[in-house]
Amino acid sequence: MTIKKKVGQLVEKYGTNDPFKIAEAMGIDIVYENLGKSLGYFSSIYRTTIIHINESLSYKKQLYTIAHELGHVVLHPDENTAFLKGNTYCLTDKKEVEANTFAIELLLSNTENENVSFDQAIEEYGMPEQLLVKFFYS
C-alpha cells in the first residue's frame, strides 16, 4: 500500500489531518523536552507509544515533527530508528524519506493547507525541499 493511501485511510478514520488530534486518538502521548539539536523521536515500550518533541520548536515545526513521527509509528512500528542511527551501521535514510513523505502528505494533501506555498513549507514547517519538489511539481 502506498504512503498516500495510508495517509488517506488515517485521515478518513480519524476525520482530521491534524497530527496532534490523530496522535491523541491513537493513544499516543506527546512529551515536550529539551532535545538539543534533535527535533523529535518516538519510543514504544510495553505497548505505550510516546512522541518526544523538542520544546523549542515553533508550532508549525511541531506539527511537521509530530506528523513525521506518526509516519514512523504507522510505517515502521517495530523499528527504533533513533537507536539504529546511534548504535548500528544500519542505514535509516529510506525510512526517514518515507516518514518525511508521510508528513508532507498528511499536512499538505487537504483543503485547509492548500494555500501553503513551496517556500512556506520549507521555511515555516521545515519540510525537505527535495521531497517538496515531487509533491508540488508532479
UniProtKB/TrEMBL annotation:
Residue ranges annotated for the IrrE N-terminal-like domain, each copy included: 23-115
Superkingdom of this protein's organism: Bacteria
Pfam families: Peptidase_M78
Protein name as catalogued: ImmA/IrrE family metallo-endopeptidase
